[in-house]
Amino acid sequence: MEAQAAIEENLSGAVAGTLFRRPQATTGVVVLGGSSGRVDVGRARLFANEGSSALALQWFGGEGQPPGICEIPLETFFTATDCLLETGCHRIVYVGTSKGAEASLLAAVHDPRIDAVVAISPSSVIWGNIGAGPDGVSWPERSSWSLDGIPLPFVPTDPNWTPEYVDGLVSYRGLFEHCLKTFRQEAAAATIPVETASAEILLVAGGDDALWPSLWFATEIVRRRSEAGKITRLVSSPDAGHRILLPGENTPRSTLHAHGGNDEAESRLGRMAWEGIRELL
Questions:
Q1: For residue 94, what are the contacts with CB-CB under 8 A and spacing of at least 6?
Q2: Which of 38, 210, 225, 245 qualifies as a cystine partner to 230, CB 3.0-4.6 A?
Q3: 3-state SS, one letter per residue, for 213-264
Q4: How many other CB atoms are found less than 10 A from the CB of residue 188?
């Protein structure tokens, strides 16, 4: 019997975004974009085409939400999990990119209902806000995340850092590497305790990431989970950058900052990762 087509729903309120709901689906995927604020409907549709229900979540920048990534309540993601469970899904997978990967890993640490995480161009630590919070204020720096109303520890950034450029665009990788070394104590406190998460974790990272050192972050996650006796899969490529393209995707490059890599390498890495992602589904 041919599977029923996914029902597309635009959501607002406690859960905002676009939901592709498949009747009888047992796996639900939450798709989290990065700091661009893009609600990745195309990627969610990709997972719906694989037979899952999929939610492209808008987690900031929408009506009633903080305009930036500033003290975002982790409860936002717990509510998204509730939404998919209520549709009848019993296996929950988070697929996050960049800041969305940071959020996905944190959510899995604090929500045991999350069965698997695909963290694309991830971070292993919590960073400060990108943009303003609900109060409209973006400085002084605050945490990106909160839990039970309490901001989580974060690695601060050095306002005196001298920008570096790749092909005329700012590369922030050096800033993140500099801050990890400069604020070692804060970085230790801000480390995401991935070793406590029960979820399966698949990491995807490019060695030529010019936005932040995602491959180093991913390697740290693998190391710490391995020390805790947990297997973590890492799919990487030395010539891929920050923007990883899954099959059929053609996400535009940022014109504001350098991503590193190139289209061919990032598509190739996306294809390499896709087999493992489908297994998690």
A1: 29, 30, 32, 77, 104, 107, 108, 114, 116, 117, 118, 199
A2: 225
A3: CHHHHHHHHHHHHHHCCCCCEEEEECCCCCCCCCCCCCCCCCCCECCCCCHH
A4: 11
Query: Residues 67, 112: contact at Cβ < 8 Å?
Result: no
Gap between the terminal Cα atoms of the chain = 21
pLDDT digits 0-9 by tens, 193-246: 999 999 999 999 999 999 999 999 999 999 999 999 999 999 999 999 999 999
Q: Which residues pair with 203 in a beta bridge?
A: 119, 234
Tokens describing residue 142: 């605050």
Tokens describing residue 262: 């190139």
- Residues 153-164 pLDDT 10s: 999 999 999 999
C-alpha 124: how far from its chain's center? 11
Say how far apart CA 210 and CA 241 lie, in whole Å: 6
Cα of 225 vs its chain's centroid, Å: 18
CA 10 – CA 45 distance, rounded (Å): 13
Q: What residues form DSSP beta bridges with 127? A: 155
**230: its two tokens:** 């947990």
What is the chain's percent helix, strand, coil content, to nearest 5? 30, 25, 45
CA distance 145 to 147: 7
pTM summary value? 0.96
Give dist(CA 7, CA 41) in Å, integer. 13
**Close Cβ partners of 200 (under 8 Å, ≥ 6 residues apart):** 115, 116, 117, 280
